[in-house]
Structures are given as structure tokens and as C-alpha cells.
Design a protein that fits this description.
The complex is a heterotetramer, with one copy of chain A (about 210 residues), one copy of chain B (about 270 residues) and two copies of chain C (about 290 residues). Chain A is mostly helical and about 210 residues long. Chain A contains seven helices and no strands. The chains are: A mainly alpha (about 210), B mainly alpha (about 270), C alpha/beta (about 290). Bound molecules: adenosine-5'-triphosphate (ATP) (2 copies) and magnesium ion (MG) (2 copies).
């Protein structure tokens, strides 16, 4: 959910390019892995497409809490697909979001880094917790919370490093703490929902995970 | 979509306008419109002047209006970008050096808005609206099959394949989510009191969306394989080429941009 | 018998449960869902909405319990005009959607059926009783703790109906309740519809393409075309109006086609208007004798 | 006339296009899709698969062009046994899925219909011609550059059929081609099916719940129950076997019900077996005369 909701024009051009280059490198790694190691098939492609659009559709639902919350469920994507396909999915979701004015085009690079952090961390934590005798709900929930926490940190770092164009005083952590707090509040809801979704899927369709 | 939340652009409506394709701007090459988008993003990222940001916004808004696109909807769709700008910038614009306009007397925390702070806010707002309006303009004047063909050309495999198919599936999943939400509302869901129950209900809907998307993907993949799908979907549409006039316009726009950003002297 | 189906709908009536008064709905993309639609539901009746694909049946149904708001015109439910303040309409009018999968979202059948009652805010124990009563009414009480995704098409439909029934609505609207069902399950649903009307006094609105079913079970048929009702009346009067039916982009029900075919073949005219298979059989048998 | 429908399927035949030999399919979750299924499709015929919900019709159809592989048993298409090496089966057998939305994925109708030909690897220009020919054959050439999501249910179905037709298959299998369609569109699809058989020499397999339609258009009916075919034969022989039909969890078609009702009502027995409305009308008219 941590998403740099900043519009175009907020970051200066050098930072936009920097974050884009970093994002492209990570994407390149995903593609390399998918092509050389995993050898994706048709079905995976169709599946990834469907998850992308499901995630986008879910994002459009306004949950009537605190006057309306929207969820990207990036962690869920990470847990369901792993980082490589997850990377492609979040890239497309970010592009689509930019297309309808949800975050700027220039921000996609930075946003991708944030989303990738969430995807990777949530996935790893969820996998790591697999050894423990824990309820799926908690495994996914904890994975999500930690993933989102790291996503949030990544986001704050990116903003602190890039600064906002035209703001002359240095931005401090203190300035961003309010945003971080709100984000973590939403993260708790998202963790609850992700945990529930994963355990629901595990109960009804365990075969989705056994691919 | 429209049912799901009124302040998020409605893909159905967007596609409706883009497919209708009756305006002058629908005939311009999609590549031109795409390159102009890049130009606008560059402009917005480089520009530091409020006047320029405002002019850009007004021009884009005029384009949007001239295309006969729905203005009232546009203003509804501004909600999110507005909130995004405000949510971050409102925290940062306090105490910018400059002439104080307005002060809040909080103990230990002197908060002052200065002219520069306000300028900053407005500049960012106009920049953001210009880019959002142009994106929507682009979406609503370019046919879906051109977008598909462009995606196919621009992105490497398998990103293009995933992108192409998800673009198609969005219409399916949105319908699916929409009808589920409708079904819930018809039984009194949607106005629940407890946050816990509320999140649980939405979690159930989301889980079901995922499961059903998975099944749908399986079926669609089968249907494609039944017609010989071998992992490569080709978008066969020919995209209209960039015309001479369009090249010229883009060149002029670039020169103008370079001039305005680095050489023009503007008051603010 | 012709011309009995005049639209005299816009006069108020004592035992009127729903009154749609010249409602129009334009979808955001400009397509016309319904247009100048006048429609009403009386107490304890089964109304069938028949019309070609895209004529506006589903759109009308979604107006009946406030899922969609008319762009112009008004809708009155139980004597109360539907406006933004009247948000509890879902208690009075239940909707069974065409695709059962859209409706069943909870992990178990019982959870799903209890969803409505819980939202009405009685105690959980009562909600459970209510749900079980509803499941019994449709003969699905043995599915209680099954997972909805694993049910057959017919069973899913039954659970959907139970989910609506559990809220004890006055009116139930069903969108194509029997498409996709095999003949035995379809018959089951038909019987439940009749039972809801006769034993529970519930009025039922069905949108359907199966005109034979409409003829069998409905008290009144409304022909929907291009977003409004162009004719309404008793099935026997509507379905024998060949001009009207063809004009609306439909075909007469099988029974009627057969009967008219026979009359035409023999070159005779008749005063009888059989609309169910049983009636047709009796009529023809008496002709042969 | 009874007992004509014995399963003598397992003898090979000269003009046999598809031969399913005792195939079983168990889904990953353990549920039985089909079981000991024997089925064949001959040249230039329309075969109807009729059976209750969950009897295995769709599962069988997905086996016909290799989308599913039998867990045991074998399938022979065009004389070639289907195994993993034979992957080009989709050229010979086209499948039209029940839900059009599953099938239409491309941005425009033309793109979608061209999808099959492009995969067959001819030139783009030829693919386009092929697609247009197919669209013309179903009477949908005017939809060429429409967006599939914006078509009506009936139009979507036509485009799906065109998409399969464009590959010039020998056999087309359709899963419930008329459910969800209004009577006029359903009739249109029916006529296209007949036209494909008569003018293009294509064999067609349809799975359907509409037994009246099966009776009208099919040359052969297979009754599917619990994953295998329990009876097959000409419609007139199958549908007049009341025991068989009831045992299979179905109901006789309307026409048959009416005819048998009349016979029973009059207490007479007859040598005639009308199965379409026209035949029934003629039979009865001659009885009355
Ligand atoms: N969500 C939507 N957005 C835009 N237009 C819509 C939407 N839903 C329906 N329509 C349009 O409204 C009209 C009425 O549609 P509706 O679904 O009510 O018809 P219907 O009678 O239920 O058809 P069917 O028998 O195929 O279910 C159609 O022209 C349709 O294209
Ligand atoms: N993907 C699947 N996974 C597991 N079981 C399945 C799957 N698809 C079908 N089945 C099961 O296989 C059996 C046959 O299903 P199938 O869909 O072939 O029936 P059908 O005759 O087409 O029914 P309908 O008339 O409802 O379409 C059913 O018991 C069903 O539950
Ligand atoms: Mg409908
Ligand atoms: Mg089926």
C-alpha cells in the first residue's frame, strides 16, 4: 500500500532518472530469472495477467473505513507469485495507476522500488515462516506487516534522498512521520485482509499454491 | 467502476470515449500523443515556475475540453491527485522562507505559511493536474487496439504479453468485482458498523476475486490454446504513423519548452 | 382479448408494493439502461419481465432495491419514496442475481445465508435460526456447512434464494433464475418460486428468456423493449399477441406456437388460450374427442 | 422402437472423425469428470450431449481437442491417436466455450477472429481474409472493429463461433451455445449450426440443457450421466423413452411431453414420434381431421 502518491513534478529530473534506472535494473533481473531459470509457460502468463487485473480491480474498491481506503494488495501478490512475476505485475499496476492519475508517470520508477520491497520482503517472510507451526492467517499477516513496514521505510528514504522540488528547507524524518503513521495504520488493515485472503484461498483452493 | 467509487476514473467510460473516436485528436498518431506525454512529464519535472505550470495546465485542459470529453467527470477524478498533493505538501510547505501570510500558533511548533510556501503548493498542484489531465486525454482519445499495438511494440516479452492480457482482463475483473459488491449491498453489506466485520467482508470478496480470477485465467488460457496459442499473442493492428505536421509540432514544442525553462525570465 | 394489455400502471393502488414511475437510467457511458419505465409490483403476485438481450431487464431489477438510482423518474417501495435517505430498502426487496457465483462469497453456506440477517442486526442465535428456516424453505438444509464453491449449479441457486429469503423480504426479484440449470433443477426453482408466493405471500419478479416458464408460473407478464415496458397483461393475453411478441424481438412460447400452428394447419379459430403444457393437452384432447 | 439406443460405439467406422474410447478423467481434486466414456463423432452430423448439471458434458468437450487429457482410455481424432506428440489437434476440432467472455480476449472483433488463423501461420493478409469470411458466415461482418466487451450477448456468441470457424475445423464443439440468449438470438445460432453442417460439411457437437433444441437440430442424441454416456440414438428414439430420461435426471422436451400427455389423456397409443413443433403440429392436425 505504501505508494508514493506524489504527482509528476514533485521530484527533480535527476532523481526521477536515478530511480527509473534502478527500477529497470531490478526488472531486468526479474526478466532474466523468468527467462533463463524459471522458463515461464503460457499458463503462467495468463495467470499473471489475471492477477494484475484482479489487483487493479481490487484497488478500485473503496473500503468504507476512515472515509474510504483503497488497497493495492502488493504483499498478497508477492505471497501468491513470488518476486519475479510479482515485479512484472506491480510494474503494470503502477503504469495503469499512473494512467488514471494515481501517482505520476515519473514516479513509476520510485514506486516500483517501493512495491518490489514489499513484494520481496512479504514473500520471504511468508516463506521463512513456513517452517513454523503457525496459522496461515498469521504467516501471511506477519509477512504483510513486515513487508509494508519495509516498503514504508523505502518510501521515506526515497523521499528524504530526492527531496521535493522547490522545498528549500531540508525535509526531515520528523516531517514524514505523519505519513508513515497513516501508512502503517492502513498497513494493519491490509495485513488483516491479506492474512484472511491467503488463509481463505488455502482453505478453498489449496491447489493455487501448489503449482 | 462507477459503482465502485466515483472519484476513480471509470475505465468503461474512458473506453467508451476512446472507441467513439470522433474528435480531431483521435486521428493524431498515438505515437505523437505518447511522445507528447513524455515531453509534458519532462516539462513538469524541469519547470520551477508557477506561471508555466498554470499555462501548461490550461492548454491541456483546453485540449481536453475541445475533444468533447466530460469536464464534470474530470473534476470528480481530480479528487485523488488533489489529496495526494495536499497530503504530502501540506506538511512540507510550512515555514518556507518568505513573506508570512498566515500563522498558526501551536505551542512549541510555530507554523507559518509564506507566499513562497503557497506558491509551491499551487505550482505542484497545477503540474500534477496538467499531467493527470493529459494522461486522461491520451487515454480517452486513443483507441484500445492502438494502445494494445503500442504496448506490444514498446515492452519486452513477457511483459508485453502480461500487459496486453491484463489490459483485456481488467474489464472482466472489474465487472466481476462490481457485481459481487452489488450482490453484497443488496443484502445490506456496505454499511456495516464494525470495522472488523467490514474488513472481513471485503477480505472475503477479495479472496473470491483472486480465486475466480485464477479460474477465469485457466479457462481463458484453455480457450486460447484451443485456438493454437503458442505463447505469443500478436497485436496485428497498424498504428497510424506520425505525420509531417506532427513532427513539426513536436519539434516546436520542444524548442519552446527549452526556451521557456532555461531562457525565459518569469516573475514566478 | 387483444388490447387488454394497456399500460394503466400509473394509477396508484392500495396493495401496491413497488411503484416505478417513469424512471430512466442512463449509464455513465451514455447507454440507455431503462427509459420512461413504468412498472409496479402488487401484493402476492409473480411478475415476469420478458425481453430481448439488452432490453433493460437487469437494469430495472437493480433499481428495485436501490442498487441503481434512476436518472429521472421515481421509485416508491412500500409506500415510501426511494431517495438517498431511504437506505434500508434491501430489507424489503431481495435480489437474486443471475450468476450465483457473484452472490456467494462466504466460506460456508450457513455463513452466506446468515449474512443478510446479521446485517439486520438481530442476535446471532436468531440469525442462525432465520438462516436455517430459509435453507429449509428451499430444501437445502443439508448443505449447511458445505463450501459454496463446491456446490453444483442448481444447489448454488438454491442457496442464493435462501440468502435472500432469510431477510424475510416482501418482494424478491430474480434475474434469469433458471438459465444454466438442467431441467430438473429448473423445475425445482420454479416450484420454490410458486411456493414462496403461495405459502409465504411473497411477491416475485423474474427476468427470463424462457417464455414457457413465464407462461407457466407468472400472473402477469411485462414485455420489455428498449428500456421500457411496451405491454403488460396476463400471460394468455400477451403471449397470444403474435404481432406484439415478434415486434418485441421475441418468439412465442412453445406451447403457444404449437397451438397456433395446429389452428392454422386446420384453418380453424378458437376461443381457448392455453399457455401451459397441461392446458394445451386438455384443449387438444377435447378437440380430438 | 425402444432399445434402439445400444452403445455399439466401440466399433471403428470409416467416416469417423473423433473416437473417444473408454476415456476417464479425474480432476486434481479427485472429482470424477468423465468415467469410461465412449463417444464418437461421424462426418457431417450434429450430435447433442444432454445431461444434468455436473454430468461431465463440458469435461468431454474439453477432451475433444486435447485441452484435457484422459487419465485413462484414449482419444482418436481424424484417425490419429491423441498423445502428447499430437499437438495440432486444435486445427481439426474447434471449441466454442459456454461463456463468451472466456473466449474473446483481443481488443477488437477482427483481432479476435484472426487469432486462430495467425497461430496457423499463414500470411497476415490471408488471415484477415479468413477472418472476414468467417464473420460473414455467421452474419457478423459489420462488427469487425467493435470492441468485444461492448457487444450484446448474442453478438458475442456469433463472434466466438466465427473465431473457431476461421480455422476451418472439421468438427466444432459448442458448450451450451444458446443459454443466456434471447429466443431470436438463440434461433439465429441454431440456424448457423444447421448451416455449418449443411453448407460447410462441418460436424457439430453441442452440449445443452435445452432438450427441445436438441430434438430440433441434432441427428443423434447422447445422454450423459455421471460421466458416461448411458444411451444414444436418434432424438425420436431417445426422447420418447420416458424411463431413460427420468432416470438420467432430465425431463422430456416440451413437444414430447405435450404429445405424450395428449395420448395419455385420450388413452390411445400411436406409431408416430414427433419431436419438433412442426412435426407435432402436423401429427395432431391429422389426428383432429
Ligand atoms: N454497466 C453498464 N454500463 C453501461 N451500459 C450498460 C451496463 N449494463 C447494461 N448496460 C446497457 O444497458 C442496456 C440494458 O442492459 P440490461 O443488462 O439491463 O439488459 P437485459 O435486458 O438484462 O439483457 P440480458 O437479457 O442480455 O441480460 C443495454 O443496452 C446494455 O448495453
Ligand atoms: N476444474 C474442475 N476441478 C474439479 N472438478 C471439476 C472441475 N470441472 C468440473 N469438475 C467436476 O467434474 C464433474 C463434471 O463437470 P462438468 O463441468 O463436465 O459437467 P457439465 O455436464 O458440463 O455440467 P453443467 O451442465 O453444469 O455445465 C462435476 O462433478 C464437476 O464438479
Ligand atoms: Mg440481464
Ligand atoms: Mg458444462
Amino acid at each position: 500500500m505504501a505508494h508514493i502518491h506524489l504527482p509528476d513534478g514533485a521530484f527533480s529530473i535527476q532523481w526521477i532518472i536515478t530511480w527509473w534506472i534502478l527500477a529497470l535494473i531490478i526488472l531486468g533481473l526479474c526478466l532474466y530469472w523468468l527467462k533463463k531459470v524459471k522458463k515461464i509457460d503460457n499458463r503462467t502468463i495468463t495467470l499473471a495477467s489475471m492477477l494484475t487485473s484482479a489487483s487493479f480491480a481490487i484497488f478500485q474498491v473503496s473500503i468504507p473505513l476512515f472515509g474510504g481506503v483503497h488497497m493495492n494488495l502488493t504483499s498478497l501478490i508477492g505471497i501468491l507469485t513470488g518476486p519475479a512475476i510479482g515485479g512484472i505485475i506491480v510494474l503494470i499496476v503502477n503504469i495503469l495507476s499512473a494512467a488514471i492519475g494515481h501517482g505520476g508517470w515519473g514516479m513509476i520508477g520510485a514506486n516500483l522500488l517501493v512495491s518490489m520491497t514489499e513484494v520481496t520482503v512479504s514473500y520471504s517472510i511468508y516463506k521463512a515462516l513456513g517452517k513454523f507451526n503457525l496459522d496461515t492467517f498469521f504467516k501471511a499477516g506477519i509477512g504483510t506487516i513486515i513487508g509494508l513496514l519495509f516498503g514504508n521505510i523505502a518510501m521515506i528514504l526515497i523521499i528524504l534522498i530526492s527531496g521535493i522540488q522547490g522545498v528549500s528547507q531540508p525535509i526531515t524524518l520528523y516531517d514524514l512521520s505523519l505519513i508513515a503513521a497513516v501508512n502503517m495504520g492502513v498497513a494493519i488493515i491490509e495485513a488483516f485482509i491479506t492474512g484472511y485472503v491467503v488463509s481463505y484461498i488455502m482453505r478453498v483452493r489449496p491447489d493455487i499454491f501448489r503449482r | 467502476m462507477s459503482e465502485l467509487s466515483p472519484h476513480i476514473p471509470d475505465l468503461d467510460l474512458i473506453t467508451f470515449y476512446s472507441e467513439k473516436g470522433t474528435t480531431l485528436f483521435s486521428r493524431i498518431s498515438p505515437w505523437t500523443k505518447g511522445l507528447m506525454l513524455v515531453l509534458i512529464i519532462l516539462f513538469v519535472s524541469l519547470d520551477k515556475s508557477l506561471i508555466l505550470a498554470m499555462c501548461l495546465y490550461l492548454i491541456v485542459l483546453a485540449l481536453y475540453f475541445l475533444s468533447g470529453l466530460p469536464i464534470k467527470k474530470l473534476f470528480q477524478w481530480y479528487t485523488m491527485p488533489f489529496i495526494f498533493v495536499l497530503s504530502l505538501v501540506l506538511i512540507l510547505i510550512w515555514n518556507e522562507p518568505g513573506k508570512p501570510i498566515f500563522s498558526l500558533d501551536v505551542p512549541y511548533l510555530p507554523l507559518t505559511i509564506t507566499d513562497n510556501g503557497l506558491l509551491l503548493l499551487l505550482t505542484l498542484l497545477f503540474k500534477s493536474l496538467a499531467s493527470v489531465t493529459y494522461s486522461l486525454f491520451f487515454l480517452m482519445t486513443t483507441r484500445y487496439n492502438y494502445f494494445s499495438a503500442m504496448i506490444y511494440r514498446v515492452f519486452p516479452s513477457p511483459i508485453d504479453q502480461v500487459f496486453l492480457m491484463s489490459y483485456r482482463f481488467i474489464f472482466i475483473t472489474l465487472k466481476m468485482v462490481e457485481s459481487m459488491i452489488k450482490a453484497l449491498r443488496s443484502r445490506g453489506g456496505g454499511l456495516l458498523k464494525s470495522a472488523r466485520r467490514q474488513s472481513k467482508m471485503f477480505a472475503e470478496v477479495f479472496a473470491l476475486t483472486m480465486i475466480r480470477s485464477y479460474d477465469r485465467a485457466d479457462r481463458i488460457n484453455k480457450a486460447m490454446e484451443a485456438r493454437g496459442f503458442n505463447g505469443r499473442y500478436v497485436a496485428a493492428t497498424r498504428i497510424p504513423r506520425i505525420g509531417i505536421g506532427e513532427y513539426f509540432t513536436m519539434l516546436m514544442a520542444t524548442i519552446l519548452m527549452i526556451y521557456l525553462i532555461w531562457f525565459a525570465k518569469l516573475p514566478f | 382479448m387483444k388490447n387488454e394489455h394497456v399500460c394503466n400502471i400509473c394509477t396508484a393502488d392500495a396493495n401496491e408494493l413497488i411503484h416505478v414511475d417513469c424512471a430512466s437510467h442512463i449509464y455513465p457511458d451514455g447507454s440507455l439502461g431503462i427509459h420512461g419505465m413504468c412498472f409496479r409490483v402488487l401484493e402476492k403476485e409473480i411478475v415476469a419481465l420478458c425481453g430481448p438481450n439488452g432490453s433493460g431487464k437487469s437494469t430495472l431489477i437493480e433499481h428495485l432495491n436501490g442498487l441503481l438510482r434512476p436518472t429521472s423518474g421515481s421509485i416508491t417501495v412500500m409506500g415510501k419514496k426511494l431517495d438517498l435517505s431511504h437506505i434500508n430498502i434491501w430489507r424489503d426487496v431481495g435480489v437474486v442475481f443471475q450468476r450465483s457465483d457473484d452472490q456467494l462469497f462466504a466460506p460456508t453456506v450457513l455463513d452466506d445465508v446468515m449474512f443478510g440477517p446479521i446485517n439486520m442486526g438481530i442476535t446471532i442465535e436468531q440469525d442462525r435460526m432465520e438462516a436455517i428456516r430459509a435453507l429449509k424453505a428451499v430444501g437445502a438444509e443439508n448443505l449447511l456447512d458445505k463450501m459454496p464453491s463446491y456446490l453444483s449449479g442448481g444447489q448454488k441457486r438454491l442457496v442464493c434464494i435462501a440468502g435472500v429469503l432469510a431477510m424475510r423480504p416482501k418482494v424478491i426479484a430474480m434475474d434469469e433464475p433458471t438459465s444454466d440449470l438442467d431441467p430438473v433443477h429448473a423445475e425445482m426453482v420454479e416450484n420454490i418460486i410458486l411456493n414462496l408466493k403461495n405459502n409465504h405471500g411473497i411477491s416475485i419478479v423474474i427476468a427470463t428468456h424462457d417464455l414457457d416458464m413465464a407462461a407457466r408460473i407468472s400472473d402477469r407478464v411485462c414485455i420489455v423493449k428498449d428500456g421500457s415496458i411496451i405491454a403488460e397483461g396476463r400471460p394468455s393475453s400477451i403471449f397470444y399477441d403474435k404481432n406484439l411478441i415478434e415486434k418485441s424481438g421475441l418468439r412465442q412460447p412453445n406451447v403457444v406456437q404449437i397451438y397456433e400452428g395446429i389452428k392454422k394447419n386446420l384453418g380453424i379459430s378458437m376461443e381457448n388460450y392455453p399457455i401451459t403444457a397441461d392446458e394445451l393437452i386438455k384443449t387438444i384432447a377435447s378437440m380430438i374427442r
